[in-house]
Design brief:
2 strands; two-stranded antiparallel ribbon; globular; mainly alpha
Length: 313
């Protein structure tokens, strides 16, 4: 019974901490979507589109995906005729960089710098698009034929505000549905000693990317539940398990490239995108970059330690 109480309390505290971040950002961005500011964003990005092998209207997809979420981006993709190559470029870019404002703000609550998250995610997105565009000559066949999407009637100011409030509240409700049972399961696992088995199971992978085994739960949470939903577990892990700042950054470096791998990948199936390639690109980019950075950080750390010892002598 005590375990249940603690799990529910942690779930409530975590939901409140993340919910008060998500609501205002989601509310503001939903309203911005209906203003001229969204058109301005799209206009700025249009010159970049041809450089990465996309048509001008793909800018709207990327803006909606980054400002709002993947669902908004997919909605914008439905009316478009897409080749395999265009669809894959968009899917890879959106997988690396989406829901940027909310997920970045949540990351700062865990203790990671916002600039780090934004630069890594946008950097991965642009570099991957450039590589696919310039190094893959195939994928010219149409994989998705544009679907006619009826436009909604013009909304009044109050309609937009109402939609923004409902949308933001639904986002928090979805968060609570994930966080509460997750916190409860983790609390049970901790109280019954199961967490040791989980960390031991994940230890070969955490060792591979250069972090301690106790960071494994944080890694698994982000990998399967995403940055926003997995943040609840991450906040608790940092607080209770003593995950170091170095390990936290390495885990986030991996997760900004490869998180919510099941949901985010499966979402693109209806558009005919080769999701296996999508998953493999995300996973191996995350793995290779994290391993390289971990080795560099480790080497720099050892040199600094050696220098300090020499000075003491």
């Amino acid at each position: 019974m005590e375990t249940l109480k603690r799990g529910l309390l942690v779930g409530l505290q975590t939901s409140w901490k993340i919910g008060k971040i998500i609501f205002p950002i989601s509310f503001i961005l939903t309203i911005i979507k209906e203003t001229a500011l969204m058109d301005w964003f799209v206009h700025i990005l249009e010159p970049l589109m041809s450089f990465i092998g996309l048509k001008g209207d793909a800018a709207l997809v990327l803006v909606l995906g980054n400002v709002l979420n993947l669902y908004a981006a997919l909605g914008a993709m439905l009316p478009m005729d897409l080749t395999v190559k265009e669809a894959l470029i968009l899917a890879v870019m959106l997988s690396f960089s989406h829901n940027l404002f909310v997920e970045t703000t949540v990351a700062t609550a865990v203790g990671v710098r916002a600039s780090f998250v934004v630069l890594v995610r946008i950097g991965f997105a642009i570099l991957s698009a450039i590589c696919i565009h310039f190094f893959w000559s195939g994928g010219t066949e149409i994989v998705h034929k544009g679907i006619a999407v009826a436009e909604s009637a013009n909304q009044t100011g109050w309609d937009i505000v109402y939609t923004a409030i409902i949308s933001s509240l639904m986002g928090i409700l979805n968060l609570i549905k994930i966080v509460f049972p997750l916190m409860l399961v983790i609390q049970i696992a901790k109280d019954f000693g199961w967490m040791n088995y989980i960390t031991k199971l994940l230890s070969p992978f955490t060792k591979l990317i250069g972090v301690e085994a106790k960071a494994g739960v944080t890694l698994a949470a982000g990998l399967f539940f995403g940055l926003a939903f997995g943040a609840g577990v991450m906040i608790q892990a940092v607080k209770e398990d003593g995950v170091s700042k170095r390990d936290l950054y390495l885990v986030f470096l991996f997760l900004v490239a490869c998180h919510a791998v099941v949901e985010d990948t499966l979402l693109f199936i209806p558009l005919g995108i080769p999701v296996l390639y999508l998953f493999l690109i995300r996973f191996f980019v995350a793995l290779i970059v994290t391993c390289i950075v971990a080795r560099i950080v480790g080497r720099v750390g050892r040199k600094t330690e050696s220098s300090l010892k020499a000075e003491v002598k």
